[in-house]
Write a structure and sequence with these properties.
mainly alpha, 11 helices, about 70% helix
């Protein structure tokens, strides 16, 4: 690979990250609008035309606020955790096989699982380094939840990998040319969506920030830039999970406009769920992960493995 290729790859990576951050900005605006109309009120509508400039006003406000840090905190880790969290969330986008980006690797599913697994450490360090009991409790709950659902998420993903005999996201479109996996593997797709909600710490699984008992969870000690980075990372992962879900069971053809419309609808689903469902009890969440999804995902994995051996010549 020549230096020109590396330069082009770096430039396209920066363009992708800028586009993701702009998408995240307008996703927050959409969420506030959707929640507003669900609660029979207006969302942001004062800053700019229909409130379109509101996300940028919020960003300026957050990043220009005074940065404080708890006196007893572990200073270096406290500042490093939000940056690493956002960096990993943006790094995950490199596995999406866009025509312009060159990190279109053949092991993209393994890359996805590896980087998403690393996100757990940043949450844990953010809670621990704040040296606050509330932050630590919030981070422990978030880590336990994320690890629990990553197990079923990986097993569901393995079922898809066995069916297409590949660990590349790009190969999904070849097997969905005539019928989407949504119709063939409906139970797995529903389980994937629920696990995705738990993975991104969204309602009804937002136990890390149970306001009544944990006061916003692991990020309670963060303000201004640190809080904004954790916030951006969460919404970038929502957009990514919507994208991955569409690649998995809604065609996966990046040349089709239908895929991007589906991503918009799935992102809207993430917000709609927040405005509709109440928060679960924590023990029910763990019960669902270990006694519900894990056995079902294992059984489905063995079933599809058997099907694959049957149809192989």
């Amino acid at each position: 690979m020549s230096w020109q290729d590396l330069l082009l790859m770096g430039f396209l990576g920066v363009v992708l990250i800028i586009c993701v951050l702009i998408g995240v900005a307008f996703l927050t605006l959409l969420e506030r609008k959707v929640l507003g109309y669900i609660q029979i009120r207006k969302g942001p509508n004062k800053v700019g035309f229909l409130g379109l400039v509101q996300p940028f006003a919020d960003a300026i406000k957050l990043f220009s606020k005074e940065q404080i840090y708890p006196y007893m905190s572990n200073f270096n880790l406290y500042y490093f955790s939000p940056i690493a969290n956002l960096f990993l969330a943006l790094l995950l986008w490199m596995c999406i096989p866009f025509l312009s980006i060159s990190v279109n690797m053949n092991l993209s599913w393994l890359y996805f699982l590896s980087i998403s697994g690393l996100g757990v450490y940043t949450v844990m360090l953010a809670g621990w380094s704040s040296n606050s009991n509330y932050s630590l409790l919030g981070s422990l709950r978030a880590v336990a939840q994320t690890i629990s659902y990553e197990v079923s998420l990986a097993l569901i993903l393995m079922s898809f990998m066995f069916l297409i005999s590949s660990v590349s996201i790009n190969d999904l479109k070849n097997f969905q040319e005539y019928i989407w996996f949504l119709f063939l593997l409906l139970p797995l797709c529903m389980m994937w969506l629920v696990s995705g909600l738990a993975e991104t710490n969204r309602t009804p699984f937002d136990f890390a920030e149970g306001e009544s008992e944990l006061v916003s969870g692991f990020n309670v000690e963060y303000s201004s830039g640190g809080f904004a980075m954790i916030f951006l990372a969460e919404y970038a992962s929502i957009l990514l999970m919507s994208f991955i879900s569409c690649m998995l069971f809604m065609g996966g053809n990046l040349k089709s406009l239908t895929l991007f419309i589906s991503v918009g609808f799935l992102a809207f689903f993430w917000l709609w769920v927040r405005g509709t469902l109440p928060r679960f009890r924590y023990d029910k969440l763990m019960y669902l992960a270990w006694k519900g999804y894990l056995p079902v995902a294992l059984n489905m994995l063995l079933f599809f493995l058997g099907v694959k051996f049957l149809i192989l010549p």
